[in-house]
Amino acid sequence: MRSRRAGLVLSILLAAAACGPTPPPPAAVPVLVWPPPPEPARVRYVGSLSRPEDIEAPKSWLGRLWEVLAGREEIRLQRPYGVAADRAGRVYVADSAARVIHIFDVQAQKYSAIKQMGKQPFETPIGIAVAPDGSVYISDSQMRRVGAFDRSGKLLREFGQDLLRPTGLAVSPRGDRVYVVDTLAHQVAVFDPAGKRLGTIGQRGAGAAGFNYPTNISVDRAGVIYVADTMNFQVKIFSADGQPRGHFGRHGDGSGDFAQPKGLALDSEGHVYVVEGIHDVLQIFDVTGRFLLGIGATGHAPGNFWLPTGLHIDGQDRIYVADSYNNRVQMFQYVRGLP
């Protein structure tokens, strides 16, 4: 009955389709830069992703009407946590509340999703990382495992069943190491691409190799490892072979301080970006830990955050922030010039 009614309404309106109203123009992207004028801009706001319509080509009036009649499912980000992008421009978002991996193919203007690991639906997908060959690694903290997927979303293998709470993920520049933050074990587990465990980095404590509920991880182009040691309020740094190389950060509420450091990433010039989850700011440091610039504040407007979590910087220095409780991923561009 419903399909006959939709067909009848559609046939009546077909004649009017050519003269129907055109889709509204896309909203203008606000001009936001950091630091603000008159200082030279170092980072600018690009836009945000919260639903498939943000990247899909505008639909005609008739197309939008048909979606209403056909009852198209409305898809929106609910609680994005992990975020990553591949070399082809696809943005992957681990949505822990919706229990899905959203895939925004910005260049092709298409949306798709990964909803399960093999035959089992995701429970709490958290971490996501893209390897140099395009394969995608996803951690599910409740399922206590990591899945490797190909570009089409097909599961290749699962591993890490001995992990206590897998969260953040990173892949080495050559793709020969997969780093998994095991938050409840207070360490980073190291695997090869086949899922064989090679070793661990760190242990519970406050020393150079000590962790207290670490959450996120990033690897720079030289293979140096950076870990958000969340409850020690620091960023820990390790060489490619897992040896401590230093740390920075302290507990506080001032510029450059941490209360809950989460996502972290590095740009092409080696600056370290850290999402501060409590103070709702993206902070930028040099390699020594010297504070350089803060982006954002608590709020819902473009450029502001509400309990942000994940962070990724792609090969073009585009910055992706999982703005968790604002239900979106915000995008920025590093325009160079930081010390």
The residue fraction in helices comes out at under 10%
Strand order of the largest sheet: 1-2-29-28-27
Uncertain segments: 12-18
Overall pLDDT metric: 91
Quaternary state reads single chain
Compute the number of strand runs: 29
Q: Write down the overall geometry.
A: globular
Distance between the termini: 66 Å
In this structure, how is the largest beta sheet organized? 5 strands, antiparallel
Q: Number of helix segments?
A: 2
Structural class estimated from helices and strands: mainly beta
Whole-number radius of gyration?
21 Å
Query: Percent of residues in beta strands?
Result: 35-45%
Structural notes for this entry:
The radius of gyration is 21 Å and the shape is globular. 8% of the residues lie in helices and 41% in strands. The chain has helices spanning 2-17, 61-70; strands at 33-34, 43-49, 80-85, 90-95, 100-105, 110-114, 116-117, 120-121, 125-130, 136-140, 145-149, 155-159, 166-171, 178-182, 187-191, 197-201, 203-204, 210-211, 216-219, 225-229, 234-238, 244-248, 261-266, 272-276, 281-285, 291-295, 311-313, 318-323, 328-334. The protein has 339 residues and is mainly beta. A 5-stranded antiparallel sheet has the order 1-2-29-28-27, with no helix packed on it. A 4-stranded antiparallel sheet has the order 3-4-5-6, with no helix packed on it. The model is unreliable at 12-18 (pLDDT under 50).
